[in-house]
Every structure is written in structure tokens, then in C-alpha cells.
Amino acid sequence: MGDDGKRICLISGENMQNQAFTLYLEEQTGIECVLRRELRRCATSAALANQTTLILADCLFVHPDTIIQQIEQLPTALPSNVMVAMINLYGSTAIELRAVVQGIRGLFEVATDLDTLVRGIHAIIDGDVWIPRKVLVTAAFTNDEDRPKRRLSPARTTLTRREREILALISTGASNDQVADRLSISPNTVRTHIYNLFRKIDVPNRMQAALWSAENL
Fold first, then answer.
1. 135 with 100: CB under 8 angstroms?
2. Where in 37-116 does DSSP place strands (E)?
3. Which of 4, 16, 62, 93 is the most buried (most CB within 10 A)?
4. What pLDDT does residue 1 have?
5. What is the pLDDT, as a whole number, of residue 84?
6. For residue 9, what is the enclosing H or E element?
7. Residue 109: which residues within 8 A CB-CB, separation 6 or more?
8. Would you call 208 exposed, middle or buried from its count of C-beta atoms within 10 A (0-12, 13-18, 19+)?
């Protein structure tokens, strides 16, 4: 495989169609892809192994509410190396907002074509999110009392000036490379700063970091 140490876990039914789908994803992405039935066990195992893992939860196999509940019931927030995306999702603003708040990195509706899915997988594995623009806009303009509750961090005074600069840039949708170019630092330095600021403000991804920034800075 081209991306050693990375893995895709498809959470779905164990049948020939899904076995063929995992082989297709493996061929198209160059990342090992396995079929599993339990999201929580997969997430826990990946976290303990410190393995970069993208969990694709099939909404035709597990109801979206159940997927979100399983993430909510994890003993700790998802670490940065364990990412979750929903596939075969029928659009529902309420469910999509809950998914974003709980740190789900990707939302792929049932009509998503395979080429788009593969591009989205690569983006998420590389540290970005694949969330429809309409969901991001809705999340950004949802009133606090209407927004699903999530953990907030009191860390506004502990961020360094550089971390605040990077947070401001990624909140506008800038990629790591774009941040590096803007601030004249290396992409590795950007990744280190992002890791540290995510840890300080207790968020798992860029979307929640942007929401935290809007509320706290």
C-alpha cells in the first residue's frame, strides 16, 4: 500500500458487495481498507494503536443517530489520528449539525459519486474536512441556544500569538500549505501548532476550532 500506517475502516454489513467496495477503495486510495461492524470498537482500537484511521460509517447499515450516539458515548473525544465520516447519508440539517459538533470530519450523501468520495477520503486523511458548504454556513450562524451542546475549553488566554494567527487562518478555510505560505513557516510547523491549539481548546477538527474561535475570540 502507498500510505503505510494508515487505514480505512468501513462500518457496514459483511457481504460480498461491501467486500468488493473495500477492495475498490483500497485500489483507488492506496490505503489499506477493512470491513468492520462496530464503530466504537474500531475507534477505540485505532486510538490505542495510535494508527491514522478513517472510519467510514455506512448510514444504510447504521442509523445516523446511532453513529452520533456511539461517538458521544466514547470515554474521551476522538483523537486527531482517528477520523469519522458518514457515507450514504440522506440529508438532514439537524443530524448534519449534530455530526459536525461531535467531530465527524466528512458527510457524503447517498447520491455522492465514487470519484467524489475518493477525493473526500484523501482530503480527510490529509487533515481537512469534507462537509457540505450549506452545513458549514448553517453551523456558523446557528444561535447558541439552538446549537447542540459540545465541550468548550476555557483556553482563550493560553493560546500563543502564533496559535491565534493560525486559528484565524484555518477558520477561514485555509489549508496547512496556505497557512505555511502566509506565515512563512514550514507545513510541519503548522501541523505542530494546530495539534497544540486543538489540544488547548479541546476540539478534534477545523470545523469545531472555527466555531470555538467565533464564540471565544
1. yes
2. 52-58, 82-89, 106-109
3. 62
4. 46
5. 93
6. strand 6-11
7. 88, 89, 90, 91, 132
8. buried
- Predicted pLDDT of residue 197: 86
Cα distance between residue 39 and residue 18, in whole Å:
16
Using CA atoms, how far apart are residues 180 and 207, in angstroms rounded to an integer?
19
CB atoms within 10 A of CB 156: 15
Q: Which pLDDT belongs to residue 126?
A: 84
Task: Please tell us whether the domain made up of 155-216 is placed in CATH 1.10.10.10.
Answer: yes
- Residue-range domain boundaries for the chain: 6-141, 155-216
Residue 110, phi then psi, degrees to nearest 5: -60, -25
Question: Which of the residues in the chain have pLDDT under 70?
Answer: 1-4, 75-77, 137, 139-157, 215, 217
Distance in angstroms (rounded) separating the CA atoms of residues 186 and 133: 28
Alpha-carbon distance of 127 to 117, in angstroms, equals: 15
What's the gap between Cα 149 and its chain centre?
A: 18
* pLDDT, position 120: 94
Q: Look up residue 166 and give its three cell numbers.
A: 493560525
Q: What is the pLDDT of residue 217?
A: 66
CATH architecture of the domain with range 6-141? 3-Layer(aba) Sandwich (3.40)
pLDDT of residue 151: 46
DSSP 122: H
Residues 6 or more apart in contact with residue 86 via CB below 8 angstroms: 56, 57, 59, 64, 67, 99, 104, 106, 107, 108
- C-beta separation of 7 from 33 below 8 A: yes
